[in-house]
């Protein structure tokens, strides 16, 4: 099986399914993750969202955006009139990275090197899905899609991810909203929903 896997990995996958089989069979770059968390949603979705990396819940369930940040995103998508089931959701990095703190597993952000390692997969994944618009949620997604480290405050809004056949859009990561103090969160959340609405109109 090791040889079969190596042969599979050496070949250009010819479908999202084949690509996902390669990702699923790969070891995490940083050991510890339960499983690879693959993208979810229909091929041909008009709009795709790229997050950072799976969190604790995503790692255990094997699905993207099912933890607290995912719940916030789901609510915001609903408010923006975007049907989650018709959108494609994925992450720049496919494995959870964490620091053990007693029984808790605290999320650690991927390094630029880790993002670069996973980029090959993300590029192919999005090529198979072929959305009209890709929304980068936060700085890690921007780094994965552009190769550049840009502050979200500067990049926010419609963007061109050069050389890509889809339009780009940059907004904040839902975890950022969860970390804001209560008094700042409501306004920031409203701005996030506005961004999603604008993104949806660009993908239409
Ligand atoms: N945060 C992400 O960036 N992706 C997930 O899947 C969950 C939380």
Notes on the structure:
- α2 (16-25) packs antiparallel against α5 and α5 (112-129) crosses α6 (139-146).
- The chain has 204 residues and is of the alpha/beta class.
- It is globular, with a radius of gyration of 16 Å.
- It has a 5-stranded mixed beta sheet with strand order 2-1-5-7-6, with helices on both faces.
- The relative contact order is 0.16.
- The protein has a single domain (2-203), classed as Uracil-DNA glycosylase-like domain (Uracil-DNA Glycosylase, subunit E, 3-Layer(aba) Sandwich).
- The protein is built from 9 helices and 7 strands; from the N terminus they run ααβααβββαβααββαα.
- GO terms for molecular function: 4 iron, 4 sulfur cluster binding; deaminated base DNA N-glycosylase activity; metal ion binding.
- Residues 38-197 form the Uracil-DNA glycosylase-like domain.
- It comes from Methylobacterium terrae.
- Keywords: 4Fe-4S, DNA damage, DNA repair, Hydrolase, Iron, Iron-sulfur, Metal-binding.
Q: In percent, how helical is the residue content?
A: 40-55%
Task: Give the N-terminus to C-terminus distance in angstroms.
Answer: 44 Å
Q: Into how many domains do the coordinates divide? A: 1
- Reading the helices and strands in chain order gives HHEHHEEEHEHHEEHH
Number of helices: 9
The average pLDDT score comes to 95
Protein name: Type-4 uracil-DNA glycosylase
Family: Belongs to the uracil-DNA glycosylase (UDG) superfamily. Type 4 (UDGa) family.
Organism: Methylobacterium terrae
Domain Uracil-DNA glycosylase-like: 38-197
């Amino acid at each position: 099986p090791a040889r079969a896997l190596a042969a599979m990995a050496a070949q250009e996958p010819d479908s999202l399914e084949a690509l996902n089989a390669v990702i699923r069979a790969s070891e995490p770059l940083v050991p510890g993750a339960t499983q690879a968390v693959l993208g979810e949603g229909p091929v041909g979705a008009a709009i795709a969202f790229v997050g950072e990396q799976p969190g604790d819940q995503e790692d255990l369930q094997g699905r993207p955006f099912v933890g607290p940040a995912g719940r916030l995103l789901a609510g915001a998508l609903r408010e923006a009139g975007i049907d989650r089931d018709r959108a494609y959701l994925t992450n720049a990095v496919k494995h959870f990275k964490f620091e053990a703190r007693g029984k808790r597993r605290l999320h650690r952000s991927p390094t630029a090197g880790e993002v670069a390692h996973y980029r090959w997969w993300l590029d192919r994944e999005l090529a198979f899905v072929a959305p009209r618009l890709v929304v980068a949620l936060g700085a890690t997604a921007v780094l994965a899609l552009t190769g550049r480290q840009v502050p979200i405050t500067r990049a926010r809004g419609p963007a061109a991810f050069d050389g890509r056949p889809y339009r780009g859009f940059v907004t904040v990561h839902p975890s950022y909203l969860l970390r804001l103090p209560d008094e700042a969160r409501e306004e920031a959340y409203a701005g996030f929903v506005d961004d999603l609405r604008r993104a949806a109109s660009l993908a239409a």
